[in-house]
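User: Predict the complex with Z15.
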Amino acid sequence: MAKKTVPVSVTFDKDLFKRSVLYNIKTLYRKTLEEATPQQVFQAVAYAIKDAVVDNWMRTQEEYEKQDPKTVYYLSMEFLMGRALGNNIINLQAQKEVKEALDELGLDLNVIEDQEPDAALGNGGLGRLAACFLDSLATLGYAAYGCGIRYRYGMFKQEIRDGYQVEVPDNWLVDGNPFELRRPEYAKIVKFGGYVNVHIDENGRSNFVQEGYQSVKAIPYDLPIVGYGNGIVNTLRIWDAEAVECFQLDSFDKGDYQKAVEQENLARNIVEVLYPNDNHYAGKELRLKQQYFFISASVQEAVSKYMRKHDDIRKFYEKVTFQLNDTHPTVAVAELMRILMDEYYLTWDEAWEVTTKTCAYTNHTIMSEALEKWPIELFSRLLPRVYQIIEEINRRFILKIQEMYPGNQEKIRKMAIIYDGQVKMAHLAIAAGYSVNGVARLHTEILKHQELKDFYEMMPEKFNNKTNGITQRRFLLHANPLLADWVTAHVGNDWITDLPKINKLKVFADDEKSQQEFMNIKYQNKVRLAKYILEHNGIEVDPRSIFDVQVKRLHEYKRQLLNILHVMYLYNQLKDNPDMDFYPRTFIFGAKAAAGYYNAKMTIKLINSVADVVNNDPAINGKIKVVFIENYRVSNAEIIFAAADVSEQISTASKEASGTGNMKFMLNGALTLGTMDGANVEIVEEVGKENAFIFGLSSDEVINYENNGGYDPTEIFNNDPDIRRVLMQLINGTYAPGDPDRFRTLYNSLLNTLSTAKADTYFILKDFRSYAEAQKKVEAAYRDEKGWARSAILNVACSGKFTSDRTIQEYVDDIWHLDKVVLPKK
Ligand code: Z15
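Assistant: Here is the predicted structure with Z15 placed in the model:
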């Protein structure tokens, strides 16, 4: 076990770094190291690391200038980056030197890292995927920009008060962000509102100009994205909004004054806060403003950067590609058309050719409530010129539909971009994109044959699958140093940049010594999490119990309710039969609910209420513990994945497009307890179904029920006394003493015997028995310690496919066709 994962860096200057830290504390705070607060020490260390990063950043960008590689712009409303310091140190391969240097200064890197606020510019899976992609793009050496919004407030901080979620603003910039760089020289103007005027010029051309608009200045802030060990540093560019100019106090014109105030307010509001909805579209005007704001600025910048080096805008797509992360940035299609026609005077056909060779679209969900449909009234008022262009795209698209399906009104109804007074953003993205991809094999198949069937039949060549992935640098190397070192000691450290190499671990799965070492590491990670839980929740948990974990956004389709109903069922069994054979289990939850999502919030309250009862009942002897981890986010996720035995991936089959938490658990040696949904299907394919616990309806069965009006849960309620007992406990005050109606809405969502509304649309009762049986198998399997260790090691060994390096290489090969960049030796 001599080999350590941390390589010796040849370029990182330890002494320079130490001096830099002390100098920073002096010049930033006029203090000595001893006088500085922990936050100030963090800032000083972060600036010292930034110094090393900036050298590589400049070198990389210079090299891009020289080599002029094709560049991807990953356009996304969300980048869920988490903390930067630890990740940057790892990717600089400077961990050993930094740790030594800090040690010599009497500082502890872990404590310093803990001072950094998470950059939580995202909700969940979609935003974290974008962050993993940036890591992989830089590590693989591809020229890439992430383009997004510099929200003043990111994802809210979750506090649990009296068992309820309370949202607290996330003022992540209070102490300043040491890694960001303000770039006012690249500011752009973005225009909203007004009306479109046509000017005929001297050549008889019609020029469309927006007049009477309000404008906002977009100021970019750049964040470095450090590649692992290759000197590459890419850029995440996030836009801040500023008023265009201070309005004139001597303006006596009331209209102008009013307009100036409105313009200033627009700038103030636009980047104020991230909408905290995951997989749900709320249709708010400000959200559309956010979308157009960052897209207009990003597209303007991409075009002007291209024109600084090239003269023919008609060949834009040879050097630039836009990836649309869901429909949120789809207005880019029309904005690019606008710039090409109105500012570069391309004809419609020329502009359309460039646009359709530049834009590609990723679909991340089939949940209908997530599909963006903007009322045309709102859209045309806010973006009059862009709307005009979309109308023309729609007109021509309908002509194409008619050409292919003459006289088929049904096709137009289902496929038009503008229909029923709404602009359908997914239809726009598909009509204008050269690629449409889903995020796991099953998801892409459902898109092709169900949700987007008509589009697939019309344009099959556009459709492709890109199964999601995660970065092993953050989720193993950084999150789980004990396991990372163990893996390296056994198979070398190639896995850090070539995850499939981790497959060499397979031969150790049956080796008893390896099994013991593995379980010992898992135990230590469970102790680390138990300590975190005690400090943050005041709950004592036994690291020898099974750590059964469900962490993800709270959503009905993800079925946290199924999990907690099953805990209630187990508790009933234990109460009836205190001496039954029962392996101690700790059920761990972590989840934020969208602020306005009532059932989701009540599920959090239910979990905490069950926790209160179960954790404090001496009759069950601590055999079940329920823990709700407050404020689940990237930084504590890293501790949680490392400590998990069981990975709960229990969405209603067909609803979870991919999932990425499932992959993070697998990489850390947890066994999946899940449905055949999203990427679970591919996980099981890699590791073998004997090393996972699969249950529940298949996606085909779910879709079948849905196409035939659902199923009737009352039958299950009537015939299964255990389930009936659990459901009655939702409404008899067992978990809400004095307020038996508290969970009535959850009960109604499952049964709803009173109204005609559909009940149990997520098949919780239908899948309950199958889930409970799978859980029994989990318990039996865990009792066989060697067998469990074997399966856990195999999960790690078979996780190679799920690196985002693989995903990105597939995007490059099949969609983007980027040039690989290698930096010359210094
Ligand atoms: C989001 O986090 C996801 C999809 C969405 O449409 C929105 Cl708005 C947010 C998630 C999927 O639910 C999840 O299955 C997937 O793994 C993730 O995107 C990344 O593709």
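Residues 4 and 474 are 17 Å apart (CA to CA).
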